[in-house]
Amino acid sequence: MLNFTIRRIILVVFVALTVSVIAFFLVRMSGDLATALAGEDANAQEIADIRKIYGLDRPLVVQYGDWLFGALRGDFGASLYFPETVGELVAMRLPTTLLLAFSGLLISLVIGIPFGVISALKPDSWIDRVSMSIAVAGQAIPTFWMGLMLMVLFGLILRWTPISGDDTWQHFILPSFTLGYYSTPPIMRLTRSGMLEVLSADYIRTAYAKGLQPWRVLFKHALRNAVIPVVALASVQFGHMLSGAIVIESVFAMQGIGYLAWESILRNDIAVIQAILLIVCLFYVGLTFIADLLNAWLDPRIRVS
Amino acid sequence: MTDNSDSNDKLIPEKVLRSNITARIFRRISAHTSILIGGSVLAIIVFMAIFAPLLAPHDPFDQDLSRRLLPPFWMEDTNPKYFLGTDNLGRDYLSRLIYGAQISLMIGVCTALLSGIIGSVLGITAGYFGGRIDAVITFVITTRLSMPIVLVALAVVALVGGSLHAVILVLGFLLWDRYAVVMRSATQQARNMDYVSAARAIGCPTWRIILSEIFPNVVNNLIVIATFEVAHAILLEASLSFLGLGVQPPDPSWGLMIAEGKEFLLFDPWVITIPGIALSILVLAVNMLGDGIRDVSAPENRN
Fold it and tell me: Is B147 in contact with A284 (Cβ distance < 8 A)?
C-alpha cells in the first residue's frame, strides 16, 4: 500500500505540473496580455512599455516559471477588472462554490445511497425499476434547464425559495438540488451493484446464520463494505460539481468561482481564468488521488498492477 | 434446497436463482424495448433534421417584431400559423426547433466520431504495445481526466471564437477519455488470445494484426460508448451555447434558444420549456438506445 501510495504521489505531481502548463499556455494563447492591460486606446509605445514593466517581453517559459512560483505562494497576479488581486478574489469566491458543491454532493448521497440499498435488497421490484427509470430520465435533462425550471416552479409560481443570489441558506436549495440530481444516478447504481455483490457473499450468509438482526447485518456488515467505492466515486463527483458549478452559478447568479470564471472568460481576464483553471484542476487531481487510494485500499489487485 | 425451510432461507440460492431468471428475462425484454423506443424516437428526430427544409412551416431566421412572443397552441390568443408560437424576434418557434435538431445531431455525431477516433487510436496503441508506450498514454489519459471539461471547453471556445465547428473540434478533443480507457483494457485482453499469437507466429505485420485481428474484437465496445458520448456532447453543446460560448446567434441551437428565452421566463416560461423538452427527449432517446445495445450485447456491463 505504501509503495502504491508513493507511486501515485509521483504520478499526481507530474499530472499537476502538466495541467499547470496547459492552464498557463491555453489561456495565454487567447490574446496579448499587454494589449489587454494597456486598454482600448493605447498606442504602440505604451503597449511596449507595459510589456516591459510586466515582464511580458521575456521568454514564455520564464514567464511560466514565474507564474507557477507565484501561484504556489498564492500570488496569481492582478485582475483586469477587479481592484483585488486574483488571489484575494478567488479566496473570496471559493467558499460559495465549495458550499454549493458540498451541499449538491450531500443531496446526491442522501438520495442515491438509500435508493441504491433498497434496489439491491429487492432487485427488479417496482421500486428498483422506478428509481432506475427516474435515474435514466434524469440523466437526459440538461442541468441548466432543470435549474431554470425549478426556478420558475419554486421561485416564481410557488414563491417558496429565492430565485437568485447566494445570501442565505435558502438561496442554496435550488442550486444544490440542480447540481445534486445529476450525480445521483451513478451513486445509486454503484451502491446497488456494490450491495448486490456484498449481499451474496458468504460472510453475509454467515452473519445471518449466526442469528444477527437483519438491520445489523445490513448496516454493519454489508453497507460498510459496499459504501467505500461509493465514497471514492463521490470524491470524483465533488470535482465534477466544482466544474459544473460554472453553469449552475451563472443560472442562479451566485458569486462563486464558476460565475467568476464565466465572467472572466467573456472579458478575457487572463490572470483570473488561469488561476481558476489551475485551482479546479488541482482539486480534480487531489480528489482523484483520494478516490484511487480508497479503491486500492479496498481492492488489493489494483495496487499490484 | 432442503425441506425444512425457515426464515433464513431468504438467502438460499433457489430464491436467488429464481429472481435471477426473472431478472434476466426482464432485462432481455427491457433491453429490446429501450432499443425500440429510443431508436424510433431518434429516427423521428433524424428524419426531422434531414428534411427540415420541407417540414419547417416557416423560415427559421425570418424575423418580424410585430408578431413577437406569440404563445404556443395550448395557450390563449394563439395564431394557428405559428403552432409553437414565436420567439422574442418573431421567428417561428417550431421551425427553429426543427432546424435546431440538425445542430444537436451534427454536434453529437461529429464529436463522437472525432473523439472515438482519437480515443480508439490511443487506447488500442496503449493496450497492444504496453510497456513504456502504455505508461505515456496512461499519463495522457490521467492528465485529461484531471481537466474540468466545461471550464476548459469554455476557455478554448472563447479563444478560437464560438461556432459549430469550434464546438465540435473542442468537444472532440476533450471527450475521448472513455474510449481510450475501455479500448485499452479490451485490447489488453484481446492481445493475449491465441489467434493473435497465431497471426504473430506466421509473420503478420503489426498494423495488420491490429486492424484485422484486434480491432474487430474490440469494436463492439465502441458502439456503446459512442451512443453515450453522442448524448454527452449534445448536452455539453447546449450548456456551452447557453453560456454564450457555443453556437452563435442567429443559429437555432436548442441551448441558445433557452438562453435567449431566459429573460422572458417570468411571463412566457414556455419559451424555455419547449427547447428544454426537445433536448431532454433527444438525449433520453440516445441514452435508451445505448442502454439497450449494451444490455443486449454485453449484459455483464450493466452495473
Answer: yes
Q: What is the DSSP letter of A75?
A: -
Q: Do B155 and A26 touch (CB under 8 A)?
A: yes
Question: DSSP per residue over A38-55, as a string?
Answer: H-TT--HHHHHHHHHHTT
Neighbours of A166 (CB within 10 A): 22
For residue A166, is pLDDT > 50?
A: yes
Query: Which of A276, A269, A127, A108 is CA-nearest to residue A190?
Result: A108
Distance (Å, rounded) from C-alpha A132 to C-alpha A146?
Answer: 19
Categorize the per-residue pLDDT at B10 as very low, low, confident or very high, splitting at 50, 70 and 90.
Answer: very low
Nine-digit cell at B45? 428526430
Nearest Cα to B167, choosing from B235, B119, B224?
Answer: B235
Contact B26 A19 (CB under 8 A): no
Between positions 225 and 244 of B, the ones with CB within 8 A of A are 231, 235, 238-239, 242-244
Cβ separation B155–A148 shorter than 8 A: no
* Residue closest to A278 by CA, chosen among A55, A72, A136: A72
Q: Which residue has the cell 434531414?
A: B50
- Interface contact flag, A151 B22, Cβ < 8 Å: no
The residues in B 72-131 lying below 8 A from A, measured between CB atoms, are none
Q: What is the CA radius of gyration of chain A?
A: 24
- Which of chain B's residues have a Cβ under 8 Å away from the Cβ of A199? 11
B155-180 tens-digit pLDDT: 888 888 888 899 999 999 999 999 99
Cis bond before residue B250 (omega within 30° of 0): yes
**CA angle, A78 then A81 then A83, to 5°:** 60
Exposure of B277 in the CB half-sphere (CA atoms within 13 A): 8
Stronger pLDDT, A115 or A298, i.e. the higher one: A115
- Residue pLDDT, tens place only, A228-245: 888 888 988 898 888 888
Residues B187-212: b if buried by 16+ CB within 10 A, e if exposed: bbebbeeeebeebeeeeeeeeebbee
